[in-house]
Queue: 4 jobs
Job 1
Amino acid sequence: MGSKEICALCDEKVKVLFYPMKEWGIDGVLCGDCYSKKLHEYYPGDHIRVNKDLD
Ligand SMILES: [Zn+2]
């Protein structure tokens, strides 16, 4: 379908789109899980968090 709703990292269909930061060098969108992982890679700590578990 030419959908962009596929996670650029894990190839899963994404319901809620997360847009990667420019400095991550990712072309496309991310799912919540991959977005969270990237956030922790680039910004270690708990001040930024995607609370997917609370959905
Ligand atoms: Zn993903």
Note: Residues 9 and 42 are 16 Å apart (CA to CA).
Job 2
Amino acid sequence: MQQRSQSPIPLKVLVGIATLLVPVLGTLCGSGSTAAAELQAGAATACITPPLGEPIVGGFHPFPAEHIHDDLHARCLVLDDGETQLAVVICDLLGIHRSVSDEARRLIASETGIPPQQVLIAATHTHSATTALGGTGDERFVPLLEELSDYQAFVARRIADGVRCAANLLRPAELAIGQVEAPEHVFNRRWFMRPGSMPENPFGSADDLVKMNPPRGSANLDRPAGPTDPTISFLAIREAEGRPLALLATYSLHYVGGVPRGHVSADYFGVVCRELERRVDREPSDPPFVAMLANGTSGDINNINFREPAPRRQPYEQMRLVAEDVAVKLAKTAGGLTYSRDWPLAARYQELRVAARHPTEREASWAEESLPAADTPDAAKTLSEIYAERVQALAHQPEMLDVPLQVLAIGSARIGTMPCEIFSEIGLDFRRRGGGQPSFLVSLAHGYLGYLPTPRQHDLGGYETWPGTNRLDRDASDRMLDALVEMASTLVPAADASSTSDKAP
Ligand SMILES: [Zn+2]
């Protein structure tokens, strides 16, 4: 296996700050602290709401933002065990370009001393945000941007400010890890259909064995093509004297939607946070409690119960229903946990060289014939024309891509990340193989490299596996998961921490 560890910031910057960071750099290669240290934590939010007029990019045809329904945030948590600091930042964005994460982590390292390898930055995948990916077309897939857009530079700056504010607020803290089940909101969105009912895909073929988002309540539905991951894993953090400080959760639900066209909204991720803040922090404290909801492994999961016809819902109604239930479950479970101050911290980061996907000869010649006329406006392109352009863009990908992978160890817990929309079965695998109590994945961290199906799901076809939606080799998920499992296994297990905390597996 060809792997390499690489810092995303220039070596001279690292060397420049190294003199300030001797104790921290001791953990760069992932050896956790063994001393029973006393935890400190701080949390803060930074507003990343874009100006109106920026393009909203959740669908095939971007359109300008016309209304701010609710502000977008970078929600930031800093943990410090006395030797090692970790930062986690969850951003209300569809995705975040690798270069934005690099720039934010460079700023964080120079301003707070937390090394880039110890900072996790991920997007929630709200579909009602403007783009921090880079343009609205395939510019987003340039591996490293030469220059950030104004909005990308703003997001990087705000992330770094949020982490700095969280670090300013560090104070003695206690932490507990919990898990709670919420199976009723997650549905696998890829379905086997009754014979003869598979519609043509944009490539003019009915070869797909599964259909993404089939018609609701259709008699042609056979069965879902994969599992769901119903488990919400979370860290709950409070001040040493008991006031709630932060809660960082992950749930494997793509997004909920129901947002009017042109609205900017953090989707249900924002509603869960506001609901938790209302429920957990009843008498708003200073500094305020910060809730954070990351996207788990939801590449093939959404909130649509395909067996039943769609109920009529007002805008934002469905996301409120889901979010209130998730917030209630989290608040209730967090209240019953046993908290401890002994949580050794560690991190590992590497860039795994993975083969990029390139079009087959057949795909390339289909694309050649199916391109739109040069003067076709974006909004008028058909799905086939959009995919013809995407297939052509795939041909220009480098042979190999450097895929950022990261594992954070927080006591007994292992949090792994990939820069993709990860299929739920990969998340379930990491729960089993990650070696933590618990182990769980966060999607869309440190970049965006498209959907990540397993090889088995590739063979079934469907939207997430189409060339252009998917940008990595067929076996990429196996290689990336193996690498994360190996990284997690090199982090020192924290038996003490797991024995002093009351887990609800
Ligand atoms: Zn998506």
Note: Residues 125, 254, 421 surround zinc ion (CB under 6 Å).
Job 3
Amino acid sequence: MTRQDVIARLTDVSIGFPAMDGTVENVIDRVSLTIHSGERVGLLGASGSGKSLTALSLLGLAPPPGTFVGGTVEIQGKDVLTSSKSERGRLRGGAVGMVFQEAESALNPVMTIGAHLEEMIRRHRPKEAARWRYIAVDLLENVDLDPVRTLKSHPHRLSGGQRQRTLLALALAGDPDLIIADEPTSSLDVLTQARMLGLLDRLCRERSLALLLISHDLGVVSSLIDRVIVMLDGTIIEEATIQDFLETPIHPYSQSLVATARRTHPQVADL
Ligand SMILES: Nc1ncnc2c1ncn2[C@@H]1O[C@H](COP(=O)(O)OP(=O)(O)OP(=O)(O)O)[C@@H](O)[C@H]1O
Ligand SMILES: [Mg+2]
């Protein structure tokens, strides 16, 4: 694959929720974005600006009672919204792996991590189902978790940071080309945060993965990303390379993001 290959593309995607008066209110409105092979994109914006819904829409998902009101979603050139259920299942988790914002609720509390990994590997790599345990051990080692202990653990036995890394191992299980990580560090202490970002960086390099990294904190993610997309109130207000964005943010909200990042993260101030 060349770098210019498009892995995922949203074109004019709107997601609406039913309002009290019976109308439908668009909470993300005509959002368009493209993620190419191997690139790392930061999706920034305040709480409630529509980052998580945009990430879900990239998988062709709108959380009920939300629905797609308009637009198209393409993964590897396939129209996700009109493709068959099995094709959609293959694209979700196969081409695109997701690390959900709520690590706790993304895991089934009565299943061990081993059972989660077995299910993912059987679904996305059926030919390798018989050797799922070897693949699972390898994936857990890749995300710096103790495979023996983690495989037999239930989600509540893991720390927040271990749960995030488990989600990352699960997202990698389908051998995706793109990882979407929705606030993968927001509930972690500073050291665990740095470790998670270092891990994402290494995995992207080793596996030539593209990354959509969602955060409200530019300072935390700026060193990891090539390009920034900024959302405000359900729309994209700015898109730029990270260098251009740090040098000349255009929208007032972008300017405040950069100013905050420079104040709170000395490494950004030096750029
Ligand atoms: N189930 C729902 N019903 C109604 N509105 C919803 C629902 N889920 C999300 N929204 C609305 O959609 C908007 C975007 O939500 P989203 O979760 O994408 O924000 P976000 O940018 O990820 O925020 P955060 O940084 O807090 O995670 C918000 O205003 C939210 O209130
Ligand atoms: Mg969110």
Note: The mean pLDDT is 93.
Job 4
Amino acid sequence: MQISIEPLRLEDARAVVDAEDEQTVRWLSEEKSTIEGTTEFIAQLSRDAELGKPKRVFGIWLDGHCVGTVDFDPDVTDGLEPGDVNIAYGVAPWVRGRDIAARAVELICATIRDRAVGTRAVIRCDARNAASSRVAEKASFEHLREVQIDTEALDDGSPVVMHVYDRNLL
Ligand SMILES: CC(C)(COP(=O)(O)OP(=O)(O)OC[C@H]1O[C@@H](n2cnc3c(N)ncnc32)[C@H](O)[C@@H]1OP(=O)(O)O)[C@@H](O)C(=O)NCCC(=O)NCCS
């Protein structure tokens, strides 16, 4: 099983859309993706990078196929501290449970360290998303704290609780 991460390209849009299911929409993309919209998203990322924005998205490649995405974004601040580099990820339902997300997180941590993006990687998991918490634990992150997110709320109006995990990259 060969796993790598590669900068996301316009031609990966179809694979990203194919890899999405209701769990991806719920916890990562927030709305159902289209190939057209995802292509524009990737183009916008490229334009933003040229303007100096630090967010980077990578395709997760398994044996020659793009099966998901993993990204880092030092500009995410909700529930985090200055200098933290937020990581988010999703993999296709048909390859879940094979340590692919945990391995992709390991790889993006090495990229963050090599590019000197930051010294601490952080993963925020909704308290209801047990699989994502397991990915953080398996990728050697430690549970740092729980936070209430101000920008989101549950249907009953109560705040969303996130587990925050961190990993020192020094
Ligand atoms: C979270 C996600 C990326 C995990 O991908 P994956 O490649 O299956 O992850 P791994 O195989 O590395 O590990 C998944 C772990 O979660 C566990 N898991 C899966 N569903 C679970 C559940 N409902 N409750 C508890 N644990 C669960 C698996 O058993 C596994 O742990 P184990 O190895 O100890 O058995 C994938 O489920 C996904 O894409 N979900 C939708 C998007 C998402 O939630 N992204 C996270 C936002 S930061």
Note: The CA atoms of residues 5 and 107 lie 7 Å apart.
